[in-house]
Design goal:
Blueprint lengths: L23 E10 L9 E12 L9 E3 L1 E5 L10 E3 L5 E4 L7 E14 L3 E8 L17 E8 L19 E3 L1 E6 L9 E7 L2 E2 L8 E2 L16 E6 L4 E6 L3 E14 L5 E16 L12 E5 L8 E6 L4 E2 L9 E5 L3 E9 L5 E6 L6 E7 L8 E2 L8 E7 L8 E2 L3 E4 L2 E6 L7 E7 L1 E3 L10 E5 L4 E9 L2 E14 L10 E3 L6 E5 L5 E6 L5 E7 L4 E3 L6 E8 L4 E8 L1
Parallel strand pairs: 10-18, 29-35
Antiparallel strand pairs: 1-2, 2-7, 3-5, 4-8, 6-7, 8-9, 9-18, 11-16, 12-17, 13-14, 15-16, 17-18, 19-20, 20-24, 21-26, 22-23, 22-25, 23-24, 25-27, 28-30, 30-33, 31-34, 32-33, 34-35, 36-37, 37-40, 38-39, 38-41, 41-42
């Protein structure tokens, strides 16, 4: 393609329009900055592209389009023809949501050079519209107009790129459908979307007039009083609902705004686009694709108050008032409520916020309709009514038991779980040691006195219907510092069937007798040469702990 350059200095080039009766269904102008090292100083290069949508029943579209460029604010430039060639062949687009028929998409484009800090009105007009259009009076005598204002640069930024418009066909059976208006701005500019009256121009004159609406139609009711529409400016979509068959034309103006170096919002261009909507006869069964949940889960797979939901097709929010009947999360023993829902950067993914982090285990998500409202629709008006079970992982590993990995014989150490937020209960089991306060309550810390190696602490963690067994190996070392001055005391007789005596004890001290389950079976104070009775105990192994405020020592004794 040859590079075409338009130099706007004291005059401008005006491109004449060749009128064609083509049943044009709409179109749009797009511009992309392609400035490079070969661009003359003081200019910006832009690739200008025009897409036109045509009914196949119309006459043949031209191979070359003639358009009009007018530089602001001077105006009154002389006219000079400039031609945009067609790029490739046309593309056939299928109707949406089960409607029959096709539409042809034609692309025209070339590169132009524009003054660096200029603003240009770009206009293409064509005669005539489809005579069967319902919302425009005498439609066959009124033309189509596609407009754009390109701000080629301002002190805030010396380039510009337009938002993009999809080539989707605006056609659906009687009922409801949702369509994209445009994509996000590639420069990150803020977009302002407004509904405007379609333009009428059949001669490419400088005067552009609004179309005359047919009786029963207006700017506020472009689909008539038997239909309704909703424009979602956040997601740049329009949802139309019509109970009758009809052909209607609406127009959008999408304006770009950007902050300058002083933080003031500045107008940076706009595109005005006609769109023709074909609302066809109802079809049997469900129109279009059924909207379903294909995947769900927390962002990391671990407990979180966020849930990402992937859908098989785009979903469109008709309203954002979410209640517990529309989105239900169920779990075997836990509960959580969806508080808000967002569409992410992709319309086929939802982000749910819950009132509490989801506990580990299996969760079932059901999205449907409640008695008072509907929440999400597919493009073709089908509601999202589906369920899916997903798993939230248990963030537990072998380091989940917090406490020392090594201990001295006879010295008590304390152990607890790192996080008990999602734990229903925990049971501890000790090898070669005994505990003082065994409990099934997860909030308590367990105190363990280790005896001889090899020693081990096991915790059976109950979370819903899941049991996780955690193990912590303990290295047991000799005599602890706290019992150095008790090291000369010995326990006799061993084994015994009636009593024991602590030989070498020189002052009264507290003692406890515990069974192998860690239960205290006897306690009291014992002095030098005093006996500790075992007669009330059953035969078996027991733990004897001797202690005061600063010292502690333990023995294993055998009752016969």
């Amino acid at each position: 393609m040859n590079l075409k350059r338009i130099l706007f200095v004291a005059t401008a080039l005006l491109f004449s329009l060749v009128g064609q009766a083509s049943h044009q269904r709409g179109g749009s102008i797009r511009y992309t900055n392609v400035t490079n090292a070969n661009t003359p100083s003081g200019f910006n290069d832009y690739y200008i592209e025009i897409e036109l949508l045509r009914d196949p029943s119309g006459i043949t579209m031209p191979a070359i389009l003639s358009v009009t460029f007018t530089r602001r604010p001077i105006g009154n430039y002389s006219a000079t023809n400039y031609n945009f060639p067609q790029i490739g062949s046309y593309t056939t687009l299928s109707q949406a949501c089960g409607a029959t028929g096709t539409v042809e998409s034609y692309i025209y484009g070339d590169t132009v050079s524009l003054v660096e800090y200029g603003a240009y009105d770009i206009r293409y007009a064509n005669c005539c519209r489809n005579a069967n259009i319902n919302n425009i009076a005498n439609a066959s005598s009124q033309g189509n107009v596609v407009l754009a204002t390109l701000v080629s640069g301002k002190p805030a930024r010396n380039y510009n790129n337009s938002p993009t418009f999809s080539s989707s066909v605006k056609s659906f059976p009687v009922g409801q459908a949702t369509f994209d208006i445009c994509g996000p701005d590639p420069d990150g500019d803020s977009l302002y979307i407004e509904l405007i009256t379609p333009h009428n121009n059949t001669t490419n004159s400088a005067n552009i007039y609004p179309v005359t609406y047919a009786t029963g139609y207006s700017l506020s009711e472009p689909f008539g009083d038997s239909a309704s529409f909703f424009i979602d400016t956040l997601n740049r979509t329009i949802t139309v609902q019509s109970s009758i068959q009809q052909i209607c034309v609406i127009a959008f103006k999408v304006s770009e705004y950007v902050k300058d170096t002083a933080g003031v919002w500045r107008y940076y261009g706009s595109i005005e686009r006609d769109e023709q909507y074909y609302i066809t006869a109802p079809i049997s069964g469900t129109a279009g694709d059924t909207l379903e949940i294909v995947n769900a889960g927390t962002p990391t797979g671990n407990p979180s108050d966020s849930v990402l939901v992937d859908l098989n097709f785009n979903a469109y929010p008709v309203m954002f008032d979410v209640d517990s009947l529309q989105m239900v999360l169920s779990h075997a023993s836990k509960s959580a409520y969806v508080q808000s829902v967002e569409i992410t950067t992709s319309n086929d993914q939802l982000l749910l916020r819950t009132d509490v982090p989801l506990a580990p285990g299996n969760w079932t998500l059901h999205i449907g309709e409640s008695a008072d409202s509907l929440f999400l629709y597919s493009q073709c008006g089908n509601t999202l009514d589906d369920s899916l079970t997903f798993y939230v992982d248990i963030p537990i590993d072998t380091n989940y038991i917090v406490g020392p990995d090594s201990a001295y014989t006879g010295v008590s150490e304390f152990y607890h779980l790192y996080d008990i937020s999602y734990v229903d209960s925990v049971n501890y089991s000790v090898t070669n040691g005994f505990w003082w306060n065994p409990t099934s309550a997860p909030n308590d810390t367990v105190e363990i006195t280790w005896t001889v190696p090899p020693a081990k602490l096991e915790a059976s963690v109950f979370i819903g219907d899941t049991i996780i067994v955690l193990t912590k190996e303990i290295t047991v070392n000799g005599i602890g510092l706290g019992e150095n001055d008790l090291s000369e005391i010995t326990l006799a007789p061993q084994p015994s069937n009636s009593h024991v005596v602590l030989l070498g004890l020189v002052e009264p001290m507290e003692y406890k007798l515990l069974n192998t389950l860690g239960e205290v079976v006897a306690m009291g104070k014992v002095g030098p040469n005093e006996q500790i009775s075992l007669e009330h105990l059953s035969s078996g192994s027991y733990y004897l702990e001797l202690f005061d405020a600063e010292r502690r020592r333990n023995w294993v004794l055998l009752k016969q």
